[in-house]
Design a protein that fits this description.
One of its GO terms (cellular component) is membrane. It is found in: Membrane. Keywords: Membrane, Transmembrane, Transmembrane helix, Transport. This is Major facilitator superfamily (MFS) profile domain-containing protein. This protein has 20 helices and no strands. The protein is mainly alpha-helical and 431 residues long. The protein has one domain: Growth Hormone, Chain: A (Up-down Bundle). α2 packs parallel to α7, α11 packs antiparallel against α18 and α11 runs parallel beside α19. It is globular.
């Protein structure tokens, strides 16, 4: 069982390390293929579409066994898909007519990532039934953040030294090959393996198993204690237009910051995520969820607003160089947004019905991805509306101000979040 947990932990670390090739891919798309800021953001959001299909993968991993196992084979499949995608990008020529193939590889890579993430979340949920509340979720968050920390740290350095994204694509492909070998060579032993879940499933046909699992998922999601928190966390992301592509181009093209600074800023963001996770695990778990989420959302709105300091160059008036400001504060909003998911993950783990681990968490994460896609689409629309799509940045302060105000909107339906639930006590007050 410990070997399975190592495979799962390695999966979280590798998924966090995906920022390593993605940093290179962003530079590759803008400098190699000449994409505009808006086009880059559209590619980022369109490439995330396979992640919306996570509920399907969750239902499959819950209901369909491959051989005598139903978790690790899916991790192997996900790693193989990612290996195929990034390996192809590593050998593909850099010409304008290869963009459709680039897009297909991005979609296949994210498809593999979504399969791996779904199954890893299901494994954590199964193991968490035998552990203290929230411990494994916190470890998973730390593993994800540790991978992202190293990925951003090394990514910026390698890209600065080599100026060759394909080297980073190749290195990540090698890492995926190691993950694939580890998952194939591990025998699955999970808490559910000793139960009756498999014997109940094999008595029915595959279509019947899938229908039953889908019905169980819908029943779980319709429960008010699950539905309302899900609705809040998803809408809290969806209503905030994200200007990530524009900010990336502003920092790299307008401010002329090099890749190492961008990578190091992401590292600082992951350090913040790890610090917040440790702080939550030690102290913040005792705070009622609604009060905690309210404070986090307000902090997020102010973190978004703080980007005005860089755009208006107030930091230079205070004697703070652009490199230092980006390094210390650029990833603050992203880190807070990433941390905000943790309490809801623990809440769902405590409420998840047995047998729905994969499908419910897949529904949860796919909802977050869909919300992020909507947020990105709204960001593209906002950019076009205020004139950012033309290539100038004079209206960027207005965009940031509107983005910050939108971040306060979810406070209007904060009653959807359980008022008295804490990760320590599992106290849930029905609406």
């Amino acid at each position: 069982m410990r070997r399975v947990w190592w495979v799962c932990g390695a999966g979280y670390w590798v998924q966090g390390f995906r920022c390593f090739p993605w940093l290179a891919l962003n530079f590759h798309l803008t400098r190699g293929l000449g994409l505009s800021p808006v086009a880059l953001q559209l590619v980022q959001n369109a490439g995330s579409l396979p992640l919306v299909a996570k509920p399907l993968f969750g239902v499959l991993s819950d209901a369909v066994y491959i051989g005598r196992e139903h978790r690790l084979p899916y991790i192997s499949i996900g790693a193989l898909l990612q290996l195929t995608a990034w390996g192809t990008l590593a050998i593909m020529p850099v010409t304008g007519d290869t963009f459709p193939t680039h897009m297909i590889c991005i979609l296949i890579g994210n498809l593999g990532a979504s399969v791996t993430e779904v199954v890893s979340d299901a494994v954590v949920t199964e193991f968490s039934r035998t552990q203290r509340t929230g411990v494994l979720q916190s470890y998973a968050f730390i593993g994800l953040a540790a991978g992202a920390l190293l990925g951003n740290l090394s990514g910026g350095y390698v890209l600065l030294r080599t100026q060759e994204p394909k080297i980073m694509f190749t290195a990540f492909s090698v890492l995926l090959g190691l993950q694939l070998a580890l998952s194939i060579g591990t025998k699955e032993t999970l808490p559910s393996s000793h139960g009756n879940s498999r014997s109940l499933l094999v008595k029915s046909s595959l279509p019947a198993n899938l229908r039953k699992q889908f019905s169980n998922l819908m029943t779980a999601v319709r429960e008010e204690r699950i539905f309302y928190p899900l609705a809040w966390i998803m809408t809290s992301f969806a209503v905030v237009p994200v200007l990530s592509g524009t900010m990336f181009c502003f920092q790299t093209q307008h401010l002329k910051l090099d890749s190492s600074i961008i990578g190091l800023s992401k590292v600082m963001g992951q350090v913040m995520v790890v610090s917040l996770t440790v702080l939550y695990n030690r102290h913040l778990k005792r705070i009622p969820l609604r009060r905690l989420v309210c404070g986090v959302q307000i902090m997020y709105a102010f973190a978004v607003l703080s980007e005005l300091i860089l755009v208006k160059q107030v930091n230079l008036m205070l004697g703070i160089p652009n490199e230092v400001y980006v390094l210390c504060f650029s990833a603050l909003a992203e880190a807070i947004a990433q941390f905000k998911v943790l309490p809801f993950s623990i809440l769902l783990s405590s409420l998840c019905p047995p047998g729905c681990e994969g499908s419910l968490f897949a529904f949860f994460t796919s909802g977050l991805v869909f919300s992020a896609i909507l947020s990105g689409v709204f960001g593209v629309g906002l950019s076009a509306l205020i004139g950012l799509s033309s290539g100038g940045y004079s209206s960027l302060p207005l965009g940031i101000l509107l983005q910050s105000l939108a971040a306060l909107l979810p406070l209007a339906w904060l009653s959807f979040v359980p008022e008295n639930w804490t990760a320590d006590g599992k106290i849930v007050k029905q609406r």
